[in-house]
Structure formats: structure tokens, C-alpha cells
Write a structure and sequence with these properties.
The protein is mostly helical. The chain is built from 7 helices and 4 strands. Helices cover about 40% and strands about 5% of the residues. It has a two-stranded antiparallel ribbon with strand order 1-2. A two-stranded antiparallel sheet has the order 3-4. The longest helix has 24 residues, at about 20-45.
Length: about 210
């Protein structure tokens, strides 16, 4: 899923300083590539009626767990065409699709680490550690994950983060690389236009 674009930050800065019209054009092309993935991910959000009754909407005072609301999840799935801050390894995301809501994060990733639910200790065993299940039902975690449906994407391996989920990751997988191809095409088209003035960018796909 990650792809390296060498010189793209320099290109964006140069466009901002010397060719703002091309900068606007690039953002529009990148947005056009990301929008179908966002739309598909929103379409995969389970409706309220398809979630187990224990996760239905209820009064806030009764909710220790976030109340399920499909609309909140759909609104929380969005895209960004602006670069992020550099991470600890010095890499910057040039564009991204995000799942901003807590509910969305639960639906997206629940069961990644424990497909059969968290280790069960029951309601009488006291600990403030969230990695244990205190549900009266020892199969509650497994049933919860099953109701949410399968997880799509690339499972975590040595040196690679877990790139799996039910919404964004599924939508990304089903595009079969079309977003990456469209992004590189947009960058290359903009670079070709800008290179009439100067040549500063080299775009390459990571092996």
C-alpha cells in the first residue's frame, strides 16, 4: 500500500511558490482519485439494523461503549490532499484517506489482534487493563467480530504494520491499485507542465 514518491514535496512547494494554478490542478486530480475509495468505504459501513442489539443507540448515561451510529462513521471517512507531518522515520503522507471517528476505528480494526475476542476473565475478575474481556459471555468478543464481518488487506509481518480493515482497507483493496496509478499520473502530468520552467522531481514506485 505505501508507495514512495521522491521529490514530490519539493514539487508541491515549487508549485505553491511559482505555479499556484498547477498546484490547484494537482489537488483536484488527487481528490478525484481518492473520492471513489471514500465513497466505497462509506458504502461498506454496516447499517444500524445489521449490528447486534447490544450496540444499538441508547442514552449516553448507559453507554460505557460508544453508541453505534452508521451516519457518524460515514461522515468520519474522508480524504486529505495536503501532506502530513513527517513520521519518526522521516516519511510524509502526500495524500491520505482517514477514518476519524472512534466508532469507525472500532468497525475498521476490531479483531485484528484477537479474532476470537480478548482473553476472557469474566465480570468478577477485577483489573483495569483493557486487554481482558469482562463480559458475562465468554464468546462475546468472537461474536462481536463475526457480526462486523471479515477483515481485508495485508496482515502485519516483520517490519510492516497491519494494513487490514473492513471499510477503508477493503475499499482500497478492491480498487486494485487504481488510486496509486491515478496519483502517479497526476504528479507526472503536473511535473511535465512545470518542467517547462524547471526540472526538480523524480517519481519512482517503491519496489
Amino acid at each position: 500500500m505505501p508507495t514512495e514518491v521522491v521529490g514530490a514535496l519539493a514539487l508541491r512547494k515549487a508549485l505553491r511558490d511559482y505555479a499556484p494554478d498547477l498546484a490547484t490542478e494537482l489537488r483536484k486530480e488527487v481528490a478525484a482519485a481518492l473520492k471513489p475509495v471514500v465513497a466505497a468505504a462509506r458504502g461498506f459501513v454496516p447499517s444500524d439494523s445489521s449490528i447486534m442489539s447490544g450496540w444499538q443507540r441508547r442514552s449516553f448515561s448507559e453507554a460505557k461503549f460508544p453508541m453505534y451510529d452508521a451516519n457518524v462513521i460515514r461522515k468520519g471517512i474522508s480524504y486529505k490532499t495536503s501532506p502530513s507531518r513527517a513520521n519518526s522515520r522521516g516519511f510524509t503522507a502526500l495524500a491520505s484517506i482517514e477514518n476519524k471517528s472512534a466508532l469507525g476505528a472500532i468497525v475498521e480494526t476490531a479483531g485484528r489482534k484477537n479474532p476470537n475476542g480478548q482473553p476472557w476473565v469474566g465480570p468478577k475478575f477485577y483489573t483495569n487493563q483493557k486487554r481482558w474481556s469482562h463480559s458475562p459471555n465468554p464468546r462475546a468478543g468472537a461474536q462481536f467480530n463475526k457480526n462486523l464481518g471479515p477483515i481485508y488487506g495485508i496482515k502485519k509481518t516483520s517490519g510492516i504494520g497491519d494494513k487490514r480493515g473492513r471499510l477503508i482497507y477493503r475499499a482500497w483493496q478492491e480498487t486494485n491499485g487504481k488510486v496509486i496509478a491515478a496519483y502517479f499520473k497526476a504528479v507526472q502530468n503536473t511535473t511535465n507542465k512545470f518542467n517547462k520552467r524547471t526540472s526538480i522531481v523524480d517519481v519512482k514506485r517503491a519496489a
